Amino acid sequence: MIIAKKKPIEEIIGEVENFDRILILGCNECVTVCEAGGKKEVEILASALRMNFMAQGREKTIDERTLERQCDHEYLEEIRADIDKYDAIVSLACGVGVQFAAEKYLTMPLLPGVNTVCLGANEDRGLWTERCQACGSCILARTGGICPVSRCAKRVMNGPCGGSTNGKCEISKDVDCAWQLIVDRLKALDKMEDYEKVAPIKDWSTDRAGGPRKVTREDVKI
Amino acid sequence: MSALNTHSRLEKILKAGHLGVTSECGPPRGSDAEEVKKKGLLIKDYVDAVNVTDNQTAMTRMSSLAACIHLKLLGIEPVLQMVTRDRNRIALQSDILGAASFDIPNMLCLSGDHQSFGDCKSGQNVHDLDSMQLVQTVRYMRDEGKFLGGDAIKRPPKIFVGAAANPFADPFEIRVPRLAKKIACGAEFIQTQCIYNIDKFKEWIKRAADRGLTEKTFIMAGMTPMKSVGMAKYMKNKVPGMDVPDEIIARLAGVPKDKQAEEGVNICVEHIQELKEIKGVSGFHIMAIEWEEKVPEIIQRAGLYPRPQV
Question: What is the pLDDT of residues B244-269, one digit of tens each?
Fold first, then answer.
């Protein structure tokens, strides 16, 4: 899923300072699961903003709403009837949801309430870690199911680099060396002979480097 | 390994069966070329070639290529170090041609320390290729006379291609397979990480020799003299992938502070003398970090001087 992190409240206060009627808009998908932008976080943010402005003696309307998804026309349409009630929307969806809402409501200021961090997994209670960078050309079959693009700080295709120590990355003792994990997996799979196959130079044109990406499926078009 | 592929003196010396000797110069953090020239001239007659580092530890410095040119103009043979951290395949190929235009005959292909170690922690890193793929790229440009895109190169680069190896990094069991991969990619010489754990190094090179790898590439053992016990402790605890045994630290700590540098040089000379006898060691890469003036003494005392004329 997409992992996001709440923006600091001071940053959000700064962004909404000049608006009087604000909608805090949550999303029921990934950001709910990673506890950054679901119904609960919408309530917390709305309360914090209300208290902040009340303490300053300023009257503002701060409403709450959480949609099933913000990356989907169908659900974003649900707020159309009420859109004129607001001067700005703080979206707690990922960057996709914020932009999709902005494209739909052309004259409405759309402010992000979270920082979108990565594609990751919920590794433990309160811990989300990156697993994929959506490079558009998956090589996991060759690397024991561990991704060097997203998990190696140098995205080394033929690793590990010389900085791997005790299974950790040179950038931090808190970061696993992706290539140690790959070697461990290849050993567990009894496929260490695969380690010596040289990974070819990667075609990054399916990655960010190739420009904005899209998937077109004629078979599912209406 | 007899036919020469380039005009590199280092290649000639290694292929003639002599022990090769290289050292290194770090370019300055400014535009004054005199600094790098001075370092180069200190060691000129004692080494076969001089590595010029490429923004080592991710600190921004004068470009490796420019510093190589300064050395080359003084009659010193450079080894251009190139990291994949800062340049994509367009820039790498372009700089390879630039180097070849000055007849810089050697290159060492590296991934480079992560930028978080340096002075641009908030910068991007590139890593379009990795270090092995950079070795492949140089070999392809030289041997096939083509760009990665397939077009022909007018006057392909004649460059003797090297890679680094760290016999001490983890996991140890893939250290030799990793060397095999670098050789398969086309690494003609290898310069190793600084060696302090002699037993572990011997084990590594024995395993490499058992696989026939020492017949396929020239392994130059990396040597860095310790200036003090403080430096030894720093290397042990702070430098990624470095293996400094406690005996080395105890030996430096066992002499008065003003004698530690001398003891560090003694250790270095002893290590070279010991490794000279080891099968598969083709030479030495002496990295006296900001201590280039000690290189002539080490090389003389280790019996590696005068350098053979080829």
Answer: 999 999 999 999 999 999 999 999 99
Mean pLDDT of B185-190: 98
- Give the tens place of pLDDT for each residue, B80-106: 999 999 999 999 999 999 999 999 999
The ipTM is 0.94
DSSP assigned state of B142: I
The reply to whether B132 touches chain A by the CB within 8 Å rule is: yes
pLDDT digits (tens, 9 = 90+) for A68-101: 999 999 999 999 999 999 999 999 999 999 999 9
Say if CB B41 and CB B73 are below 8 A apart. no
Q: Which residues of B touch A153 (CB under 8 A)?
A: 114, 116, 125
Across the interface, do A158 and B132 touch by the CB < 8 Å criterion? Answer: yes
A166 or A47, greater pLDDT: A47
CB A98 within 8 A of CB A31: no
| Helix (H), strand (E) at residue A213 | none
Option in B137, B148, B171 nearest A180 (CB): B171
Going by pLDDT thresholds of 50, 70 and 90, the confidence category of residue B181 is very high
Contact B129 A201 (CB under 8 A): yes
- Of residues B127, B169, B171, nearest to A162 (C-beta): B169
List the domain boundaries for chain B. 9-226+280-301
What pLDDT shows up at residue B172? 84
Would you call A61 an interface residue with chain B, using a CB distance cutoff of 8 Å?
A: no
- Tell me which long-range contacts A8-14 makes (C-beta under 8 A, separation of at least 24): A9/A45, A9/A48, A9/A49, A9/A52, A12/A45, A12/A49, A12/A90, A12/A111, A12/A113, A13/A49, A13/A52
In chain A, where the domains are located:
2-118, 135-209
d(CA A160, CA A150): 14
- Do A162 and B241 make contact, defined as CB atoms within 8 angstroms? yes
Give the minimum alpha-carbon distance from A111 to chain B in angstroms, rounded to a whole number: 24
Q: What are phi and psi of A130, to 5 degrees?
A: -70, 140
Average pLDDT of chain B is 96
Whether B133 sits inside 8 A of A158 (CB atoms) is yes
What architecture (CATH level 2) is domain A2-118?
A: 3-Layer(aba) Sandwich (3.40)
**Nearest Cβ partner for B169 among A155, A157, A165:** A165
**What token pair was written down for A53?**
């402005």
- For chain B positions 36-65, those within 8 Å of chain A (CB to CB) are none
Residues with Cβ within 8 Å of B10's Cβ and at least 6 positions away in sequence, in order, are B20, B22, B48, B49, B77, B79, B105, B106, B160, B189
Question: Hey, are the CB atoms on B240 and A165 less than 8 Å from each other?
Answer: yes
- The nearest CA of chain B is from the CA of A74 a distance in Å of 38
Question: What topology is assigned to B9-226+280-301 in CATH?
Answer: TIM Barrel (3.20.20)
